[in-house]
Write a structure and sequence with these properties.
six-stranded mixed beta sheet, alpha/beta
Length: 305
C-alpha cells in the first residue's frame, strides 16, 4: 500500500495538521485536505511523492471544520468530495459555517483558514453510515462517529482506519487527547465512537493531528477514552461549583499542559515546545465553551449549583 502523510505546515508549524494520501488504481484518494491557506503546501508534498493536485480523484472528509475541509473546493475541479449527510449542505453553501466560525475566530479567519468558497453541488457525494466506495484495489467504508462533531466519519479499508478528530490528537511523543470543541461536543457519543474504532481492530490508525499512530492502537484508544470521560467529569465539577469561564480557561490549560508534559517521552527535550504544538493543533480554550454547552444542554441538572 502506497500511503503518504502530507504536512500542511499550518501557520508555519510542521507536524500539526495532516492530509493523508492513498494511491489507488484511479489516482489519489485524499483523506481530509487541510485549510485552504495551506493548499500550496499540500500540493508541494504531493509532488514530492510523485503526484500533483490533478491526480486527486477523491477526497474523503472526516468532517467539515476548516482545518480538515477548508481546501476541499480547491480539489473539486478534479475530485469528488465525499462527506457525511449533515456536512454536505455546508460544503455547497458555507455561509452559515463561516458565520459560526467567525464568532469563534473573529478577524483571524482569513489568516487561519484562507479563502472559503463553495464546493460545486455536482462534486459533492453524500456517504451514509457504513456505505462503501469501491476504489480499486480498495473498498473504503464510511462509519458515522459523532462526538467531536455530529457530521463526523472515520474511514476503514483493509485493516486501516483514518480516524479524523474522534480518534484524538497526538503530536510527536505526546499523549492522545480529545479535541473538545463547540458547538457539537457530545461525550456519550464520543465514547461510543471510540468503541466502534476499537471493534474494527485496525493494524494502522491515521490521525489528521498527526499522522500514523505509533505503538499500540488499543492503548491509544484506551487512553483517549479515559481522558474523554475524566475531562468531561472535571468540567462538570468545576461548572457545578460556579467556576467562571475565564478561570476555567486558565485551570483547564494548566491541567491539559501538565498531562502532556507528564505523558511525553523522556526523549522530548523541550516540553514547552510540545505543549505549544498541541495548542496549535487543538487550542485548549475551545474545550471550555464546548464543555459548558454540553453540560448545560444535555445534563443541566448535573451542573446546577
Amino acid at each position: 500500500m502506497s500511503l503518504h502523510i502530507l504536512d500542511t505546515r499550518q501557520l508555519g508549524h510542521a507536524g500539526i495538521v495532516a492530509a493523508t494520501a492513498l494511491k489507488t488504481d484511479d489516482g489519489i484518494a485524499l483523506f481530509d485536505t487541510g485549510p485552504e491557506s495551506t493548499f500550496d503546501n499540500v500540493v508541494t508534498d504531493l509532488r514530492k511523492a510523485g503526484f500533483d493536485a490533478g491526480d486527486v480523484r477523491r477526497v474523503f472528509l472526516s468532517h467539515i471544520h476548516f482545518d480538515h475541509a477548508g481546501a476541499a473546493w480547491r480539489f473539486a475541479e478534479t475530485a469528488t468530495i465525499y462527506v457525511h449527510p449533515r456536512g454536505a449542505p455546508h460544503l455547497i453553501d458555507p455561509a452559515k459555517l463561516v458565520e459560526s466560525a467567525t464568532r469563534i475566530f473573529g478577524s483571524d479567519m482569513e489568516r487561519l483558514w484562507g479563502k472559503i468558497a463553495p464546493v460545486p453541488r455536482e462534486r459533492v457525494k453524500i456517504l451514509e453510515d457504513n456505505e462503501i466506495v469501491r476504489v480499486p484495489p480498495f473498498e473504503i467504508r464510511a462509519i458515522a462517529t459523532p462526538g467531536h462533531a455530529s457530521h463526523h466519519h472515520v474511514y476503514h479499508w483493509d485493516d486501516n482506519v483514518f480516524g479524523g478528530d474522534i480518534a484524538g490528537v497526538r503530536i510527536g511523543n505526546g499523549p492522545p487527547i480529545p479535541p473538545f470543541v463547540p458547538p457539537e461536543l457530545h461525550v456519550e457519543s464520543w465514547r461510543e465512537s471510540i468503541a466502534k474504532i476499537r471493534n474494527l481492530n485496525p493494524a494502522q490508525l491515521y490521525l489528521p493531528h498527526f499522522g500514523r499512530v505509533e505503538g499500540s492502537i488499543s492503548e491509544h484508544l484506551d487512553l483517549l477514552d479515559e481522558r474523554v470521560a475524566r475531562w468531561s467529569e472535571w468540567f462538570r465539577e468545576k461548572i457545578h461549583t460556579g467556576t467562571s469561564e475565564v478561570d476555567l480557561r486558565s485551570e483547564f490549560a494548566t491541567l491539559e499542559h501538565s498531562e502532556i508534559e507528564a505523558a511525553s517521552s523522556d526523549l522530548v527535550t523541550c516540553h514547552s515546545s510540545l505543549v505549544t504544538s498541541y495548542e496549535a493543533a487543538d487550542p485548549s480554550y475551545m474545550a471550555v465553551s464546548a464543555a459548558i454547552r454540553y453540560w448545560n444542554k444535555y445534563h443541566p441538572e448535573e451542573v446546577t449549583p
